[in-house]
Amino acid sequence: MPPSYVIGNARIVDPGRGTDCLGELLIANGRIAASRDELDSGKVNQIDATGCIATPGLIDFHAHLARWQTDTGVNPDLMAIPNGITAAVDAGSTGTAGAEGFIRHVIPNSEITIRMFVNVSAIGVATELHKENPNPSLYDEAALADLCDRFPDLVLGLKIRLGKSFSDGWGAASLDRAKEIARKIGKPLCVHATNPEISYDRLLGVMERGDILCHCYQGGDHTILADDGRVAKALSKARERGVLFDAAVGRINYDLEVAAKALADGFPPDIVSTDVVSTSLYHPKLFHLLRVASLFLALGMPLDQVIRACTDTPARLMGMEGEIGALTPGARADVAIFAVREKPVHFSDARGHTINDDRLLIPQATFKNGRLLYKQIDFEY
Fold first, then answer.
1. How many CB atoms lie within 10 A of CB 4?
2. DSSP letters for 104-148
3. pLDDT value, residue 371
4. CA–CA–CA angle 168, 278, 85 (5° rounding)
5. pLDDT of amino acid 67
6. What is the predicted pLDDT for the residue at 131?
7. Which pLDDT score, from 0 to 100, does residue 270 have?
8. Long-range contacts for 329-332 (Cβ within 8 Å, ≥24 apart)?
Protein backbone atom coordinates (compact mmCIF):
# COMPACT_ATOMS: atom_id res chain seq x y z
CA MET A 1 0.00 0.00 0.00
CA PRO A 2 1.42 3.44 -0.89
CA PRO A 3 2.30 5.56 2.16
CA SER A 4 0.33 8.60 3.23
CA TYR A 5 1.65 12.10 2.59
CA VAL A 6 0.84 15.57 3.81
CA ILE A 7 2.20 18.16 1.38
CA GLY A 8 2.07 21.40 3.32
CA ASN A 9 2.58 25.10 2.63
CA ALA A 10 2.26 24.69 -1.13
CA ARG A 11 0.57 26.98 -3.57
CA ILE A 12 -2.01 24.53 -4.89
CA VAL A 13 -3.04 25.20 -8.49
CA ASP A 14 -5.83 22.97 -9.78
CA PRO A 15 -7.53 24.70 -12.74
CA GLY A 16 -10.25 22.05 -13.09
CA ARG A 17 -11.61 23.11 -9.70
CA GLY A 18 -10.64 26.76 -10.00
CA THR A 19 -8.22 26.36 -7.08
CA ASP A 20 -5.21 28.63 -6.61
CA CYS A 21 -4.43 28.99 -2.92
CA LEU A 22 -1.97 28.19 -0.17
CA GLY A 23 -2.80 24.99 1.64
CA GLU A 24 -2.01 21.35 2.19
CA LEU A 25 -2.53 18.39 -0.08
CA LEU A 26 -3.32 14.97 1.39
CA ILE A 27 -2.47 11.61 -0.19
CA ALA A 28 -3.75 8.28 1.11
CA ASN A 29 -4.01 4.85 -0.51
CA GLY A 30 -2.80 6.21 -3.83
CA ARG A 31 -5.58 8.80 -4.01
CA ILE A 32 -6.12 12.44 -3.11
CA ALA A 33 -7.66 12.42 0.37
CA ALA A 34 -10.41 14.73 1.57
CA SER A 35 -9.33 14.81 5.23
CA ARG A 36 -6.60 13.67 7.59
CA ASP A 37 -8.95 10.95 8.85
CA GLU A 38 -8.11 8.97 5.70
CA LEU A 39 -4.36 8.97 6.37
CA ASP A 40 -2.48 6.01 7.78
CA SER A 41 -1.53 7.52 11.11
CA GLY A 42 1.47 5.26 11.50
CA LYS A 43 3.00 5.99 8.11
CA VAL A 44 2.51 9.68 7.30
CA ASN A 45 5.27 11.52 5.48
CA GLN A 46 5.34 15.27 5.98
CA ILE A 47 6.57 17.38 3.06
CA ASP A 48 7.18 21.09 3.49
CA ALA A 49 6.59 22.60 0.05
CA THR A 50 7.10 26.21 1.09
CA GLY A 51 7.76 28.36 -1.96
CA CYS A 52 6.64 25.61 -4.34
CA ILE A 53 3.61 25.01 -6.52
CA ALA A 54 1.66 21.74 -6.38
CA THR A 55 -0.44 20.82 -9.40
CA PRO A 56 -2.02 17.72 -10.83
CA GLY A 57 0.57 15.54 -12.52
CA LEU A 58 1.28 17.10 -15.90
CA ILE A 59 0.06 15.50 -19.13
CA ASP A 60 2.12 15.76 -22.31
CA PHE A 61 -0.65 15.36 -24.87
CA HIS A 62 1.65 15.26 -27.89
CA ALA A 63 4.76 13.10 -27.55
CA HIS A 64 6.45 10.27 -29.44
CA LEU A 65 6.83 7.35 -27.08
CA ALA A 66 7.46 4.29 -29.28
CA ARG A 67 10.96 3.90 -27.88
CA TRP A 68 11.41 0.28 -28.93
CA GLN A 69 9.57 0.52 -32.25
CA THR A 70 10.77 3.71 -33.96
CA ASP A 71 13.95 5.75 -34.09
CA THR A 72 12.02 8.85 -33.00
CA GLY A 73 10.48 7.46 -29.82
CA VAL A 74 11.65 8.34 -26.31
CA ASN A 75 11.56 6.19 -23.20
CA PRO A 76 8.23 7.30 -21.67
CA ASP A 77 9.24 7.17 -18.02
CA LEU A 78 12.65 8.80 -18.48
CA MET A 79 10.96 11.60 -20.41
CA ALA A 80 8.13 12.06 -17.95
CA ILE A 81 8.75 11.30 -14.31
CA PRO A 82 11.75 13.62 -13.66
CA ASN A 83 9.72 16.47 -15.19
CA GLY A 84 6.45 16.29 -13.26
CA ILE A 85 4.68 14.39 -16.05
CA THR A 86 2.48 11.48 -15.00
CA ALA A 87 0.58 10.85 -18.25
CA ALA A 88 1.21 11.31 -21.95
CA VAL A 89 -0.34 10.69 -25.34
CA ASP A 90 1.58 9.25 -28.26
CA ALA A 91 0.84 11.41 -31.30
CA GLY A 92 0.66 8.85 -34.08
CA SER A 93 4.12 7.30 -33.88
CA THR A 94 2.68 4.01 -35.08
CA GLY A 95 0.19 3.14 -37.79
CA THR A 96 -1.75 -0.08 -38.19
CA ALA A 97 1.48 -2.02 -38.74
CA GLY A 98 2.81 -1.28 -35.27
CA ALA A 99 0.04 0.08 -33.08
CA GLU A 100 -0.83 -3.20 -31.39
CA GLY A 101 2.81 -3.74 -30.49
CA PHE A 102 2.78 -0.31 -28.84
CA ILE A 103 -0.40 -1.20 -26.98
CA ARG A 104 0.87 -4.56 -25.77
CA HIS A 105 4.48 -3.71 -24.96
CA VAL A 106 4.99 0.01 -24.35
CA ILE A 107 1.80 1.04 -22.55
CA PRO A 108 1.67 -1.76 -19.93
CA ASN A 109 5.41 -1.57 -19.25
CA SER A 110 5.44 2.14 -18.41
CA GLU A 111 4.86 3.74 -15.01
CA ILE A 112 3.01 6.68 -16.51
CA THR A 113 -0.49 6.58 -17.99
CA ILE A 114 -0.34 6.42 -21.80
CA ARG A 115 -2.96 6.81 -24.50
CA MET A 116 -2.39 7.09 -28.25
CA PHE A 117 -3.44 8.30 -31.67
CA VAL A 118 -2.96 5.86 -34.55
CA ASN A 119 -1.38 7.21 -37.70
CA VAL A 120 -3.54 6.73 -40.82
CA SER A 121 -0.37 5.70 -42.64
CA ALA A 122 0.38 2.07 -41.85
CA ILE A 123 4.07 2.63 -41.07
CA GLY A 124 3.49 5.69 -38.89
CA VAL A 125 6.43 7.92 -37.99
CA ALA A 126 8.95 5.09 -37.91
CA THR A 127 12.00 7.11 -38.93
CA GLU A 128 13.18 10.58 -39.86
CA LEU A 129 15.09 9.19 -42.85
CA HIS A 130 11.91 9.27 -44.91
CA LYS A 131 8.26 10.23 -44.44
CA GLU A 132 5.14 8.13 -44.33
CA ASN A 133 3.23 7.54 -47.58
CA PRO A 134 0.36 10.07 -47.86
CA ASN A 135 -1.50 8.15 -50.58
CA PRO A 136 -5.05 7.97 -49.19
CA SER A 137 -5.81 4.78 -51.13
CA LEU A 138 -3.31 3.01 -48.85
CA TYR A 139 -5.07 3.85 -45.59
CA ASP A 140 -6.29 0.56 -44.08
CA GLU A 141 -9.77 1.51 -42.92
CA ALA A 142 -10.64 -1.98 -41.72
CA ALA A 143 -7.48 -2.27 -39.61
CA LEU A 144 -7.95 1.21 -38.15
CA ALA A 145 -11.55 0.41 -37.23
CA ASP A 146 -10.47 -2.91 -35.69
CA LEU A 147 -7.88 -1.24 -33.45
CA CYS A 148 -10.36 1.37 -32.27
CA ASP A 149 -12.97 -1.31 -31.63
CA ARG A 150 -10.68 -3.60 -29.62
CA PHE A 151 -8.90 -0.86 -27.66
CA PRO A 152 -11.50 1.91 -27.34
CA ASP A 153 -10.04 3.41 -24.16
CA LEU A 154 -6.43 3.40 -25.32
CA VAL A 155 -6.87 4.68 -28.89
CA LEU A 156 -8.10 8.27 -28.71
CA GLY A 157 -8.30 8.87 -32.46
CA LEU A 158 -6.47 9.04 -35.78
CA LYS A 159 -3.48 11.16 -36.76
CA ILE A 160 -2.43 12.61 -40.11
CA ARG A 161 0.51 14.80 -41.11
CA LEU A 162 -0.01 17.43 -43.80
CA GLY A 163 2.39 19.89 -45.34
CA LYS A 164 5.62 20.23 -47.25
CA SER A 165 7.57 16.94 -47.32
CA PHE A 166 4.60 15.11 -45.80
CA SER A 167 1.76 15.30 -48.31
CA ASP A 168 3.18 17.16 -51.31
CA GLY A 169 0.98 16.90 -54.37
CA TRP A 170 -2.06 15.40 -52.66
CA GLY A 171 -3.81 18.64 -51.76
CA ALA A 172 -6.82 17.92 -49.56
CA ALA A 173 -7.24 14.29 -50.66
CA SER A 174 -5.25 12.79 -47.77
CA LEU A 175 -7.08 14.93 -45.22
CA ASP A 176 -10.52 14.23 -46.64
CA ARG A 177 -9.97 10.48 -46.61
CA ALA A 178 -8.57 10.52 -43.07
CA LYS A 179 -11.56 12.51 -41.85
CA GLU A 180 -13.96 10.18 -43.66
CA ILE A 181 -12.47 7.19 -41.85
CA ALA A 182 -12.40 8.98 -38.48
CA ARG A 183 -16.05 9.96 -38.86
CA LYS A 184 -17.06 6.38 -39.70
CA ILE A 185 -15.14 5.01 -36.72
CA GLY A 186 -16.46 7.74 -34.42
CA LYS A 187 -13.06 9.01 -33.28
CA PRO A 188 -11.45 12.46 -33.42
CA LEU A 189 -8.83 13.36 -35.99
CA CYS A 190 -5.55 15.01 -34.96
CA VAL A 191 -4.05 17.02 -37.83
CA HIS A 192 -0.38 17.99 -38.07
CA ALA A 193 -0.27 20.97 -40.43
CA THR A 194 3.05 22.63 -41.30
CA ASN A 195 3.13 24.73 -44.46
CA PRO A 196 0.07 22.89 -45.80
CA GLU A 197 -0.75 23.01 -49.49
CA ILE A 198 -4.34 23.92 -48.71
CA SER A 199 -5.67 27.00 -46.94
CA TYR A 200 -6.65 26.96 -43.28
CA ASP A 201 -10.22 27.67 -44.40
CA ARG A 202 -10.18 24.42 -46.40
CA LEU A 203 -8.29 22.44 -43.78
CA LEU A 204 -10.40 23.51 -40.82
CA GLY A 205 -13.58 23.28 -42.86
CA VAL A 206 -13.63 19.50 -42.52
CA MET A 207 -12.71 19.47 -38.83
CA GLU A 208 -15.41 18.98 -36.21
CA ARG A 209 -15.90 19.16 -32.46
CA GLY A 210 -13.15 17.20 -30.72
CA ASP A 211 -10.74 17.27 -33.67
CA ILE A 212 -7.32 18.76 -32.93
CA LEU A 213 -5.03 20.98 -34.98
CA CYS A 214 -1.50 20.63 -33.65
CA HIS A 215 1.51 22.89 -34.22
CA CYS A 216 -0.96 25.77 -34.33
CA TYR A 217 1.79 28.40 -34.02
CA GLN A 218 4.04 27.07 -36.78
CA GLY A 219 5.76 29.58 -39.04
CA GLY A 220 6.56 29.50 -42.73
CA ASP A 221 4.58 30.43 -45.81
CA HIS A 222 1.18 29.62 -44.30
CA THR A 223 0.36 30.45 -40.67
CA ILE A 224 -2.79 31.01 -38.65
CA LEU A 225 -2.35 34.78 -39.01
CA ALA A 226 -4.16 36.85 -41.61
CA ASP A 227 -2.48 39.64 -43.57
CA ASP A 228 -3.31 42.14 -40.82
CA GLY A 229 -1.34 40.10 -38.25
CA ARG A 230 -4.42 38.93 -36.40
CA VAL A 231 -5.65 35.35 -36.13
CA ALA A 232 -7.55 34.35 -39.26
CA LYS A 233 -11.32 34.12 -38.90
CA ALA A 234 -11.25 30.44 -39.88
CA LEU A 235 -9.47 29.68 -36.61
CA SER A 236 -12.00 31.48 -34.43
CA LYS A 237 -14.91 29.84 -36.26
CA ALA A 238 -13.32 26.42 -35.81
CA ARG A 239 -12.81 27.02 -32.09
CA GLU A 240 -16.47 28.02 -31.77
CA ARG A 241 -17.38 24.64 -33.34
CA GLY A 242 -15.27 22.82 -30.76
CA VAL A 243 -12.04 22.23 -32.70
CA LEU A 244 -9.07 22.23 -30.33
CA PHE A 245 -5.64 23.79 -30.84
CA ASP A 246 -2.45 22.18 -29.57
CA ALA A 247 0.79 24.16 -29.39
CA ALA A 248 2.91 20.98 -29.83
CA VAL A 249 5.99 23.10 -30.25
CA GLY A 250 8.54 20.43 -31.21
CA ARG A 251 12.00 21.49 -32.33
CA ILE A 252 10.88 23.51 -35.36
CA ASN A 253 7.08 23.56 -35.31
CA TYR A 254 6.58 26.92 -33.63
CA ASP A 255 7.28 30.53 -34.41
CA LEU A 256 7.60 32.90 -31.46
CA GLU A 257 6.27 35.86 -33.43
CA VAL A 258 3.20 33.91 -34.57
CA ALA A 259 2.56 32.71 -31.01
CA ALA A 260 3.01 36.17 -29.51
CA LYS A 261 0.61 37.77 -32.00
CA ALA A 262 -1.95 35.00 -31.56
CA LEU A 263 -1.92 35.28 -27.77
CA ALA A 264 -2.12 39.07 -27.98
CA ASP A 265 -5.19 38.57 -30.20
CA GLY A 266 -6.84 36.37 -27.56
CA PHE A 267 -6.01 33.00 -29.13
CA PRO A 268 -4.13 30.89 -26.56
CA PRO A 269 -3.64 27.15 -27.09
CA ASP A 270 -6.13 24.70 -25.64
CA ILE A 271 -3.24 22.28 -25.11
CA VAL A 272 0.41 22.93 -24.26
CA SER A 273 2.58 19.99 -25.31
CA THR A 274 6.06 19.16 -26.55
CA ASP A 275 6.01 16.90 -29.66
CA VAL A 276 9.14 15.44 -28.06
CA VAL A 277 11.22 12.92 -30.04
CA SER A 278 14.48 11.15 -29.32
CA THR A 279 16.56 13.94 -30.85
CA SER A 280 14.90 16.75 -28.88
CA LEU A 281 14.48 15.45 -25.32
CA TYR A 282 16.92 17.29 -23.03
CA HIS A 283 18.27 19.23 -25.99
CA PRO A 284 18.17 23.01 -26.58
CA LYS A 285 14.93 24.74 -27.56
CA LEU A 286 12.55 22.01 -26.37
CA PHE A 287 14.11 20.11 -23.46
CA HIS A 288 10.85 19.07 -21.69
CA LEU A 289 7.26 20.09 -20.92
CA LEU A 290 8.03 22.46 -18.04
CA ARG A 291 10.35 24.45 -20.30
CA VAL A 292 7.55 24.67 -22.87
CA ALA A 293 5.18 25.77 -20.09
CA SER A 294 7.75 28.39 -19.06
CA LEU A 295 7.82 29.62 -22.66
CA PHE A 296 4.08 30.26 -22.62
CA LEU A 297 4.39 32.10 -19.32
CA ALA A 298 6.98 34.29 -21.04
CA LEU A 299 4.51 34.90 -23.86
CA GLY A 300 2.01 36.24 -21.34
CA MET A 301 -0.24 33.25 -20.74
CA PRO A 302 -1.39 33.17 -17.07
CA LEU A 303 -0.09 30.30 -14.94
CA ASP A 304 -3.52 28.76 -14.32
CA GLN A 305 -4.21 28.69 -18.08
CA VAL A 306 -0.85 27.07 -18.77
CA ILE A 307 -1.46 24.41 -16.12
CA ARG A 308 -4.99 23.78 -17.39
CA ALA A 309 -3.57 23.24 -20.88
CA CYS A 310 -1.36 20.41 -19.63
CA THR A 311 -3.65 18.89 -16.98
CA ASP A 312 -7.41 19.40 -17.00
CA THR A 313 -7.96 19.75 -20.76
CA PRO A 314 -5.80 16.76 -21.79
CA ALA A 315 -7.39 14.60 -19.08
CA ARG A 316 -10.84 15.38 -20.49
CA LEU A 317 -9.72 14.53 -24.02
CA MET A 318 -8.30 11.25 -22.72
CA GLY A 319 -11.67 10.36 -21.20
CA MET A 320 -10.10 10.47 -17.72
CA GLU A 321 -11.53 13.72 -16.37
CA GLY A 322 -11.61 13.64 -12.56
CA GLU A 323 -9.33 10.61 -12.49
CA ILE A 324 -6.12 12.31 -13.62
CA GLY A 325 -5.32 15.95 -14.31
CA ALA A 326 -7.08 16.99 -11.10
CA LEU A 327 -6.53 17.18 -7.34
CA THR A 328 -10.14 16.38 -6.50
CA PRO A 329 -10.55 14.08 -3.48
CA GLY A 330 -10.76 10.54 -4.83
CA ALA A 331 -8.67 11.27 -7.93
CA ARG A 332 -5.45 9.37 -8.51
CA ALA A 333 -2.67 10.95 -6.50
CA ASP A 334 -0.73 12.05 -9.57
CA VAL A 335 0.96 15.20 -8.32
CA ALA A 336 3.72 17.50 -9.55
CA ILE A 337 5.63 19.85 -7.27
CA PHE A 338 7.76 22.51 -8.87
CA ALA A 339 9.45 25.78 -8.07
CA VAL A 340 9.37 29.02 -10.02
CA ARG A 341 12.98 30.12 -10.14
CA GLU A 342 13.89 33.71 -10.95
CA LYS A 343 16.73 33.50 -13.43
CA PRO A 344 17.42 34.81 -16.92
CA VAL A 345 15.87 32.49 -19.52
CA HIS A 346 16.40 32.72 -23.26
CA PHE A 347 13.88 31.15 -25.65
CA SER A 348 14.40 30.88 -29.41
CA ASP A 349 12.78 29.25 -32.41
CA ALA A 350 14.13 27.71 -35.60
CA ARG A 351 13.50 30.94 -37.52
CA GLY A 352 15.81 33.04 -35.38
CA HIS A 353 13.21 34.81 -33.24
CA THR A 354 13.99 35.15 -29.55
CA ILE A 355 12.26 36.07 -26.31
CA ASN A 356 13.73 36.58 -22.85
CA ASP A 357 12.14 36.11 -19.45
CA ASP A 358 13.19 35.75 -15.82
CA ARG A 359 11.09 32.75 -14.73
CA LEU A 360 11.66 29.04 -15.18
CA LEU A 361 9.54 26.19 -13.79
CA ILE A 362 11.84 23.66 -12.11
CA PRO A 363 10.58 20.15 -11.18
CA GLN A 364 10.97 19.23 -7.51
CA ALA A 365 8.96 16.02 -7.01
CA THR A 366 6.61 13.72 -8.89
CA PHE A 367 3.99 11.40 -7.41
CA LYS A 368 2.30 8.69 -9.47
CA ASN A 369 -0.66 6.89 -7.91
CA GLY A 370 0.48 8.13 -4.51
CA ARG A 371 4.05 6.89 -4.85
CA LEU A 372 6.94 9.33 -4.82
CA LEU A 373 8.84 8.39 -7.98
CA TYR A 374 11.12 11.41 -8.30
CA LYS A 375 12.61 14.02 -5.98
CA GLN A 376 15.08 16.76 -6.89
CA ILE A 377 18.28 16.15 -4.96
CA ASP A 378 18.02 19.46 -3.05
CA PHE A 379 14.28 19.21 -2.34
CA GLU A 380 14.35 18.25 1.33
CA TYR A 381 11.50 17.05 3.51
1. 22
2. IIIGGG-SSEEEEEEESSTT-S--SSSPPP--GGG--HHHHHHHH
3. 97
4. 110
5. 92
6. 85
7. 98
8. 329/31, 329/32, 329/33, 329/34, 330/31, 330/32, 330/34, 331/31, 331/32, 331/56, 332/30, 332/31, 332/32, 332/369, 332/370
Other CB atoms within a 10 A radius of the CB of residue 186 amount to: 11
* Cβ neighbours, 10 Å, residue 224: 26
Q: List the alpha helices (DSSP H) in the chain.
A: 76-80, 99-101, 141-150, 173-185, 200-205, 233-241, 256-264, 289-298, 303-309, 312-317
Q: How many residues are listed for the chain in this entry?
A: 381
Supply the DSSP symbol for 53.
E
Residue 266 CB neighbours (<10 A): 9
Which domains occur in the chain, in start order?
4-55+329-375 (2.30.40.10), 58-317 (3.20.20.140)
Residue 275: name the closest of 254, 301, 298 by CA.
254
Strand order in the sheet with 212-214: 58-63, 85-91, 113-119, 155-163, 189-194, 212-214, 244-246
Write down the pLDDT at residue 11: 98
Please answer whether residues 217 and 224 qualify as being in contact, where contact means their C-beta atoms are separated by less than 8 angstroms: yes
**Positions in the chain short of pLDDT 50:** none
> CA–CA distance from 328 to each of 35, 56, 190 (Å)?
12, 9, 29
pLDDT of residue 284: 81
- The answer to whether residues 62 and 318 touch, using CB atoms and an 8 Å cutoff, is no
Give the whole-angstrom CA distance, residue 142 versus residue 86: 33
CA–CA separation, 170 and 192 (whole Å): 15
Dump pLDDT digits (tens) for 253-275.
999 999 999 999 999 999 999 99
What integer pLDDT is reported at residue 82 of this predicted model?
A: 97
d(CA 281, CA 192): 20
Strand partners, 359: 342
Per-residue model confidence (pLDDT) at position 167: 83
